[in-house]
């Protein structure tokens, strides 16, 4: 029997075109010849021959099944077959599973970052109290506040006053005494709890962006972003205590 086309597609896609051991790319572009050079090999974990690498361990109904294949470069293929005692069945299965999990997570992470940067989308964590504030506020140069989903007039005024307190805290965070800082943070935590009772949730994030100001070269600045959000206005935007928002194209935080 031979490896089926469908099995090959699954193996290469889940392996991300990289060797499960050294992580090197397995298809290279040769610009001079305008062609692709394949160095990847579809390797059997258990040999179909009893005297082959790991062949004595167990007998499979189909040695060309996806479960018995691992994608490697030619060097590592030779390595696992020359040293079957070191690269045992369990070791190779673990290597394969770990590699495919790594590929999936890496792609998802890069995809999320790409979507966020391209579409100006941000995912903010819910701010419950001082723990989240201590994570977002320190070393922030700029701040951004939004409470546009809050329609109640009095509640919007209270939120704006709360954000003014946060702005002041950002400005003096590194300069005040520890006890005074703790008092500030606990007061903020109490206010957040009161907003939560009225259905308003606070979300925040510290993000780094490049800005250029007059007579100052372009540089990285940390932005402390806080959004007071009424879930009734857009329930689908909140999931697992995270808020997904699209920032305006002219997003311009304040210094």
- Overall shape: it is elongated
Give the beta-strand count.
Answer: 10
Mean pLDDT: 88
Rg, Cα atoms, Å: 27 Å
Spatial separation of the terminal alpha carbons = 68 Å
Structural class category: alpha+beta
Strand content: 15-25%
Question: Sheet bearing the most strands, described?
Answer: 6 strands, mixed
Sheet with most strands: strand arrangement:
6-8-7-5-10-9
Range of helix content: 25-40%
The helix/strand order is: HEEEEHHEHEHHEEEE
User: In terms of per-residue confidence, which ranges show pLDDT below 50 for 5 or more consecutive residues?
Assistant: none
| Oligomeric state of the chains present here | single chain
Number of continuous helical runs: 6
Overview of the structural elements:
It is a single chain. With 255 residues, the chain is α+β, with helices and mostly antiparallel strands. It has six helices and ten strands, in the order H-E-E-E-E-H-H-E-H-E-H-H-E-E-E-E. It has helices at residues 5-15, 74-82, 89-119, 130-136, 153-172, 178-197, and strands spanning 27-30, 35-38, 40-44, 69-73, 121-126, 142-146, 201-213, 216-229, 238-239, 242-246. The strands form three sheets. It has a six-stranded mixed β-sheet. Strands 1-2 form a two-stranded antiparallel ribbon. It has a two-stranded antiparallel sheet with strand order 3-4.
């Amino acid at each position: 029997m031979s490896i089926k086309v469908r099995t090959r597609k699954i193996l290469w896609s889940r392996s991300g075109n990289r060797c499960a051991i050294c992580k090197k790319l397995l298809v290279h572009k040769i610009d001079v010849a305008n062609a692709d050079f394949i160095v990847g090999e579809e390797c059997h974990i258990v040999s179909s021959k009893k005297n082959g690498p790991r062949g004595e361990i167990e007998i499979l109904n189909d040695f060309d099944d996806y479960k018995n294949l691992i994608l490697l470069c030619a060097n590592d293929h030779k390595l696992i077959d020359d040293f079957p005692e070191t690269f045992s069945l369990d070791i190779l299965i673990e290597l394969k599973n770990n590699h495919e999990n790594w590929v999936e997570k890496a792609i998802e992470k890069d995809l999320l970052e790409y979507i966020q940067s391209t579409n100006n989308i941000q995912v903010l964590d819910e701010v419950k109290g001082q723990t989240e504030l201590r994570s977002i506020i320190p070393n922030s140069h700029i701040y951004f506040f939004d409470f546009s989903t809050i329609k109640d007039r009095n509640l919007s005024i209270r939120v704006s006053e709360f954000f003014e307190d946060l702005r002041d805290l950002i400005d003096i965070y590194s300069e005040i005494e520890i006890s005074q800082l703790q008092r500030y943070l606990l007061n903020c935590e109490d206010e957040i709890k009161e907003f939560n009772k009225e259905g308003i949730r606070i979300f925040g994030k510290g993000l780094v962006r490049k800005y250029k100001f007059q007579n100052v070269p372009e540089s990285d600045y940390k932005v402390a972003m806080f959004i007071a959000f009424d879930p009734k206005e857009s329930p689908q935007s909140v999931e697992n205590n995270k808020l997904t928002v699209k920032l305006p194209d002219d997003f311009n935080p304040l210094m």
